[in-house]
Every structure is written in C-alpha cells, then in structure tokens.
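Pasting as-is:
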Amino acid sequence: LFLLAGEFTAIVLGLAFVWFYGLNVLLAKKTVDVSFLEANAGLWFSEAFDGKSASIQHMELSWRPELQAIVLDARNIEVEDEAGLSLQSIGHLGVAVDFGDALGAKLTPRYVDITGGAVTWLRDGAGNVVAGMGTPETVGRFNALPGGKGLEARTDQSGGFNMATLEGVTIRGAEVYVIDRTRGIDLRFPDTHVTLAKKASQFGLSLEAALEGGSDTGKVSAKALFSADYEDFDLDVSLRGVNPRTVAPESGRAAILANFDLPVDLDLQVSAMRGQGLRTVTLDVKSGSGTGGLSPRTNRIKSIDIAANYDTITEALNIDTLR
C-alpha cells in the first residue's frame, strides 16, 4: 500500500515538476490539474500491475501550506489485463507527502486516502506469503518500476514499517482477501472501511467490514488504540452473525469450529501495557440456534452463552458463564 502510494506519487510529481519547471506554479496556484499526465501515469499503473491498459480519469496536485505537504488526488483508476479483466479498480487515491520530501526523490506518505481497490494476504501451499494490492488472482504483480525513484521504505530495526512516520490512513469500500492454503482459510471482506489516525504518541484504529464465508455474511468491527511499537494497546473486536462452519480453517486447532453451524456474536476486549504485558482480556460469545458439537457427531443447539476473563495473576482464562 505505501509502496504503491509513494511510487505513484513520485512518478506524477516528477513529471509535473519537469513540466512546470519546478514548484513555482504549484505554490502560486495552490491547485494544478495534471490530468494531461494520464498517459504516463496510466502506463506506470499498467506496468505495475502487469496489465495491458490503465486509465485515470482525473489527477490534480495541491499545495497545503497548513500541512506543509503536497497532495496528489487521482480518481477513477482502472487497470485491465489482455482479456479485459479488471486487475484493480480504485475510485480515489489521495496521498500527502512532506514538502521537503517532494524536493528530493524519497517520498514517505504522511496521509493515504483510498476508495475502492482490493488488498490480499495470501499464503500458498508451500508456506510462501505474498501481500499487497490486488485480488488473489493478481496480488504480487505490483512492483516498483526498474530504476524508479519514489518511496524509500522507512523501516524500524526489525524491518517493519515505521508507524511513527505515518499520520493517517483512510480506506473506504475496499475488498480484502485473507487466504491461507496451508490451513484451508479462504475469507473475503467485501466492504471494508478502515480509519487510522495518529493521536499524540498513539494511533487510533477503527474498522468496519462485512465477512463472507460460503453463502453466509457476517459483520466485523474493531477499535484499537496503540503505541507505534505496539507495546501499549487497547483492542475491542466484535463479530455479528458469523457462522463458524463457513469461516473455520480446514486444519489446525480451530478446525473444530467447522462442526458448529449457527450464527455467533462475539465480543473480545484486550488491553496490554508496556512492561506489564496483558492487563485484561474478556470474552463474550452468544449464538442463535443451529447444530454443533466437539465430536464428529453434532447435536441440535438452542443457544450458546459463554463469558470468560483472563486472570493476570494466575495467567489463566477463567470461565464465568457456560451454558
């Protein structure tokens, strides 16, 4: 996601700065329509996703002095393969980069705003993992152009993205796929909305998504507040109307969930603090009627009600309610 945003912004900025002989026109006008660069930017998108053609309906650059940032807005991005199959469809891509970065060739997005598009996390049968923009059929096609100068990935010592450089991400109406072929997991989140915003030294995360498994559709929501190094966090996760049978993996300990064919509501709260580890964990599970059991033989179930909490002293999960 950040590679895509930074690399694309670098290409457009580079072309625009050459055309306008630097930043003078942009700084004077505040907003400049750069849709005339669509052919060049579309070619980049096409090559990036290994497509045959790409189109971008509108692009503009704007100078935001209150943010000390240059913002790129691109709308209605479509990438197709040779058969006319859509490889990526993005209604809006907005990227804000520091003015200082824009003067050089190293761009790290401060804000990213995306409407539409698809993101996939996929582990193949050999255990290899690929993640990024695209559907399961196209993920992994995206790469920076040979010799491209754009995003310099700012990483921490572990090699992960340095959250401290990011200030906000908004994703609306995206399709998210999670596939693990080693365990038989195949999940689709067809309408995902994510907001990530920096709050002082912490980040706030909000997520709302539909969850499809087989013919059933449930809802997932989550809210979190965490530090940039993830040592401190508060997490609330809710599932509504999710059928374990349709989302359970085919192997592993959780595979037994496939024995339960009924709608489930789940609420999970987790809190951790630096130096103390887990502080609180509470779990509430309720179900409607259906069938299920812990053995191959299933029984008729009227309802399930489970409440549990984590004891930080004994480091044990205590069951408060089980019926």
